Amino acid sequence: MSTFDLDSQPGVVKRHPTRTVAVSWGATRTLIGGTAPVLVQSMTNTDTADAIATAIQVKELALAGSEIVRITVNTPEAAKEVPAIREQLDRMGISVPLCGDFHYNGHKLLTQFPECAQALSKYRINPGNMGGGKRRDDNFAQMIEVACRHQKPVRIGVNWGSLDHELLARMMDENSKLAKPRDAQAVMRDALVVSAISNAQRAEELGLPGDAIILSCKVSHVQDLIAVYRDLASRCDYPLHLGLTEAGMGSKGIVASTAALSVLLQEGIGDTIRISLTPEPGGDRTREVVVGQEILQTMGLRAFTPMVIACPGCGRTSSTVFQELADRIQTYLRDQMPSWRKQYPGVEAMNVAVMGCVVNGPGESRHADIGISLPGTGEVPAAPVFVDGERTVTLKGDHIAEEFQVIVQEYVARRYGSARAATSTN
Hints:
By secondary structure, the protein is an alpha/beta fold. It has helices at residues 51-64, 76-91, 106-112, 114-119, 133-150, 165-176, 184-205, 222-235, 250-266, 287-298, 321-343, 361-367, 400-425, and strands at 20-25, 28-33, 39-43, 68-72, 98-102, 122-125, 154-159, 213-218, 241-242, 248-249, 272-274, 277-278, 307-310, 351-355, 370-373, 383-387, 390-395. Converts 2C-methyl-D-erythritol 2,4-cyclodiphosphate (ME-2,4cPP) into 1-hydroxy-2-methyl-2-(E)-butenyl 4-diphosphate.
């Protein structure tokens, strides 16, 4: 198992070595594993048979930063609409690769709807939901044959809730005969890993290239996920997809996913992630993308959007001005990123500080690329602004928020616009 390298620079994670898998659509070639950055994925929750609604949600997820979007393909009606969804996305200029999620009848759908098989960039196969015995082997082989024919990579995704019953029963039986049997939970974890690796090896025997396979072993408890992926990483070099299945809703889902994935990512394990949040009624599906990005960015593994540093507030900050400004600036920065990524290379690594009082305000603002220290309760009603560590101006009055946003806009254009010009010149 590859772990955090204590002899390297502080905070530098030594990645678990894996093969590199390409997931492509048109000119877009997304790499998973190897030296590629850890990717953020998501999944739609629309009825895939509704091509318009699904294409719209895929677009929203892609614009939020999802680098691969998975869609359910569970019925003939859904499979029939996949090419239309792809066409809608192409017309909208959204080239994000689509992954088809198959359970139970994937072998039939991929065979009966070749246009669906071609329009997808990647297939997700769950070996535990493909029947039993020879029927299971035949169904699996049929799906792998389609993947080979269309030259599509496959994620073999084993799930705690749908583990191969025959495999588990056999391993439980073998365990019971040991002089010192392991507990049932440990056997189940081992069965997940064995299922994933053995199915990957079978796929290679059937002709699927080894660099077209990604593995995942999803469970719903933090410690189980950590144990399973540590074991999986120690036994193979396939790229690994991380995710806590059925993580939950709101803060519980975010905390559980962060706790599990952060430990593994810090050990260099994981090449692509998905945060499986249950949306609140009417909630925004893109939240899971944002959470995935924030996990990677706060760990220093990737940069997606400028980070806003803001204090939590205390008795010194009875005014809500700094909270409102921090929220306003953070929303503004994220909203600008779809266009800023092209206009201003490097802007995603920018740090902005919005602080609420004099205690840590000036210091944090100096450390950020650009920062403002707002007045706390009883302090002089003035807000010094710091740019690249230097105090440049002091804002006063009722329009501090508007004036600071203009300063941020000008700073981005000046600093990162020149980076783009230098790149173009070279």
